[in-house]
Design brief:
By secondary structure, the protein is an alpha/beta fold. It is 37% helix and 12% strand. The structure holds uracil.
Length: 274
């Protein structure tokens, strides 16, 4: 069976519709090794994934739901608000490039705004640029980035057909964890990117990105398997479905979890509408 036929057969077994011009399944060029490495051994369809619409009034101010026990380093009044930002894409890039709203600007080489198709149906959101991304100015490079590309290619999505952004636009030094205050300051940039790309579905990878976007303290195990929803902050009548999945860096350490990512992708496909 050719790779393409095998992929289609696999997607059929998974219950993923091979229909859409939008995702260019037919045009996708797959790299044999990453795809073979990514797909699970078993061709049995995974158990049905529960699809609960969790319609949260998203894009609330970040610090609104911060538990009282946590140190809040920025007050809600100091947090940058999306409405203060340009609605023109290149102006937004310039604005981010000059950002000094948190200390990360002191250690960054450059901001990492995002990459891909700004009219994409799929938007992928990660946590923060790492060392290599800081040097090169592009998100998701290195091994985790390669795995993310393979995951996307396995469902017919070339990396340049989606839009990829991070919750933070600057790399935390020494690859340390992102701070809540940094995420709160940077959130407006992500909100504006979401508003302007206006994707049909958002795939949030990893706990930090997911909790930040959905303003939730739930563990990733509870956030997965549901269709969350956020409001497009400019086109307020539009709700954008959000699917949570594991971060590729975690999958590198725990490859057995890849099947769950398949389930999440299947769920993401199921919410794509014309
Ligand atoms: N690189 C990124 O750009 N984002 C992540 O979340 C991890 C690595």
């Amino acid at each position: 069976m050719s790779l393409s036929a095998r992929k289609k057969e696999y997607l059929r077994l998974m219950g993923i519709p091979v229909y859409s011009e939008r995702v260019d399944v037919a045009e996708a060029t797959l790299v044999e090794e990453p795809f073979a490495e990514f797909i699970p051994e078993s061709t049995n369809p995974p158990e049905a994934v529960s699809s609960v619409i969790d319609s949260s009034p998203v894009l609330k101010q970040a610090s609104q739901e911060t538990p009282a026990s946590e140190v809040v380093e920025v007050s809600i009044h100091d947090v940058l608000k999306r409405g203060e930002l340009p609605e023109d894409w290149s102006d937004l890039i310039d604005h981010v490039a000059n950002c000094e709203r948190c200390d990360l600007h002191k250690t960054r080489t450059q901001t990492v705004f995002g990459t891909g198709n700004i009219q994409a149906d799929w938007m992928i959101i990660g946590e923060a640029p790492g060392f290599e991304e800081d040097k090169q100015g592009e998100p998701f490079l290195g091994k985790a980035g390669d795995l993310l590309s393979s995951i996307l290619e396995s469902i017919g999505l070339a990396r340049n057909k989606v839009y990829i952004a991070n919750s933070l636009k600057c790399s935390p030094p020494g690859n340390r964890d992102s701070k809540k205050s940094e995420l709160a300051q940077c959130r407006a940039y992500l909100e504006q990117q979401i508003a302007l790309v206006d994707p049909k579905v958002i795939l949030c990878v990893g706990r930090v990105a997911s909790q930040n976007l959905l303003q939730s303290d739930d563990p990733i195990s509870r956030l997965r398997g549901k269709v969350h929803s956020i409001q497009n902050p400019i086109k307020v009548e539009k709700q954008i479905p959000v699917i949570v999945t594991y971060h590729p860096a975690y999958l590198l350490r725990s490859p057995s979890q890849k099947l769950k990512v398949w389930q999440d992708l299947k769920l993401a496909f199921s919410v794509l509408t014309d």
